[in-house]
Design goal:
4-stranded antiparallel sheet; rod-shaped
Length: 294
């Protein structure tokens, strides 16, 4: 008989970190020119660990780089973090990894800056915002920075942290003795270190690989039943993030044919009474009693 059971599925995934800055896809372009540092003022929406900056820029043959400055009386002030250079990018959103993670404080204001050595450099923007700019010969980021001009535009530039999540996994059904394989690979973005998987809740015999692939072959004694699988994944770097999800597996009872055991061959006399005992090994449903017939 097949067991049919339904239960609600519970999925818990670590939240996506917020971003500081303007994530809108700006359609208007501001020509920065060479050597002008442009910085937008933004408020941190939470206590964030930032590892990446993103900006929508125009394609150039030269280089862009980004930085984050502190705020002092609504002016950019001290250098807090910076990125590596990006050479000859195309037009569109570009990624600038920070050289080291930067923690920003909820409610505090920060300045997200972008700089180029190319006279054709431009950054896209959307709507009104607070922008300051200053002229510096392209090279090391000034610390502190002094800006001489302003504009009421909102650059499409933001900074964000790493993300870690596990996919939605649907409930499954498997027969006794059949191999179950479930791909439960995490999605990690800008996350340092390697991923480590663990099944914190699972039936005996189940395992998970270093790539998040779950395998299990239920035994006769494990069916019929409904089993819970809970996966936890973490990273080995800093900051450490955790993601988890759960799903159910229903094991169906399979009534396998019994194996008959016959007595050894023998010789008997004609017209002589003879009897022998046959037996059967039944690995199927425990409640079944095998019957014999010639």
């Amino acid at each position: 008989p097949a067991l049919t059971t339904s239960k609600s599925l519970s999925i818990v995934v670590s939240p996506m970190p917020a971003a500081i800055g303007n994530t809108n896809d700006g359609a208007l372009a501001d020509i920065m020119g060479a050597s002008w540092i442009n910085a937008g003022r933004f408020q941190a929406p939470g206590n964030l660990t930032l590892t990446m900056m993103r900006a929508k820029v125009g394609g150039i043959a030269g280089k862009y780089k980004c930085a984050i400055y502190s705020d002092n009386a609504s002016q950019p002030d001290r250098l807090l973090g910076s990125t590596a250079e990006l050479s000859a990018p195309g037009t569109g959103w570009q990624s600038f990894p920070l050289t080291s993670p930067l923690v920003v404080t909820n409610g505090q204001f920060y300045w997200l800056a972008i700089w180029s050595d190319d006279g054709n450099a431009q950054t896209f923007y959307s709507g009104a915002g607070t922008l300051r700019y200053g002229f510096y010969s392209y090279g090391a980021w000034p610390d502190p920075i002094i800006t001489t001009g302003s504009a009421a535009i909102n650059y499409s530039i933001f900074a964000t942290g790493p993300t870690l999540s596990l996919p939605f996994v649907a409930n499954a059904t498997v027969n006794e003795g059949a191999l179950l394989t479930v791909t439960n690979t995490a999605i990690a973005v800008n996350l340092p270190g390697t991923l480590n998987y663990q099944l914190t809740v699972a039936p005996a015999g189940a395992g998970i690989s270093s790539n998040g692939v779950i395998t299990w072959t239920p035994t006769e004694s494990q069916g019929p039943s409904t089993q819970t699988f809970t996966t936890v994944v973490t990273n080995s770097g800093t900051p450490v993030l955790i993601a988890t999800n759960s799903f159910l597996v229903t094991v169906r009872e399979i009534n396998t044919a019994p194996a008959i055991v016959l007595p050894a061959s023998t010789n008997i006399m004609a017209l002589a009474a003879w009897s022998a005992q046959a037996s059967a090994n039944d690995s199927g449903v425990a409640a079944d009693s095998p019957t014999f017939a010639l």
